[in-house]
Amino acid sequence: MSSDSAPINLTHHFLIAMPGLNDELFGRSVVYVCEHSPQGALGLIINKPAGVTLGELFERLELPLGRPDWADMPVLRGGPLQTERGFVLHEAIGEPVPLAGAADDDAGQEGTAPPTAYASTLRVAGTRLELTTSRDVLEAVSVGAGPRQMLLALGYSSWGEGQLESELGDNAWLTVPADESLLFDVPLAQRYERALALLGLQPWMLTPNAGRA
Question: Rounded to the nearest 5°, which phi and psi values hold at 202?
Fold first, then answer.
């Protein structure tokens, strides 16, 4: 991405690793971008298991799991940063927030956001999704309440100013608008192929020298 290119906003997009991205964690990864601005980007890898289930994690936290149907849900490796901390991506309450730079019909409301149910939450702009890092969301789940759909990751991924744009320019990633059903309904082992399918691609079609930014 050249310095004179218009800025891009990949909030609520998937980053799909290209074959040339040779990294133990990020290789063949799909990253959901929760926030992207000129200052950088933040996201979660959504297809790499952490080797523990939600039921086992709740047991470690000494919390009951009020959703027994989630006991075998795999906890994810969200990224290389703060890997001892949980990051819960879940459905939000309230109305969607416009994406940054989008037309705002209520100019006087610019910069405001609907209230959230939890103590430490990032609203994913333009969506009904939130990223919560406070324990209260897990406490809600422990009593059978909380969000209807969620995924839980240990750790997160981030890029500094211009870093993601540079990686896109180096053809490290394909990008595609996110599909929420892939976040919550598709088994981990199928997420890479299903994300590529959003672009009409299959893994064998990719070469290390072709990318889409």
Answer: -125, 155
Spatial separation of the C-alpha atoms in residues 173 and 108, rounded to whole Å: 37
CATH code where residue 51 lies = 3.40.1740.10
What is the pLDDT at residue 206? 84
User: Is the distance from CB of 78 to CB of 30 less than 8 angstroms?
Assistant: no
Distances (CA, A) of 109 to 63, 95, 126, 200: 39, 13, 15, 39
Mapped onto helix, strand or coil, the DSSP state of residue 72 is coil
By C-alpha distance, which of 111, 55, 48 is closest to 77? 48
Contacts of 118 (CB under 8 A, 6+ apart): 130, 132, 134, 136, 137, 140
Query: Which amino acid type is present at position 78?
Result: G
Kindly state whether residue 20 falls inside one of the protein's structural domains. yes
CB 19 within 8 A of CB 29: no
Residues 129-168 have pLDDT tens digits of 999 999 999 999 999 998 999 999 999 999 999 999 999 9
In a domain, 120, yes or no: no
Instruction: Note the pLDDT tens digit of each residue in 17-60.
Output: 998 888 999 999 999 999 999 999 999 999 999 999 999 999 99
Count of domains observed in the chain: 1
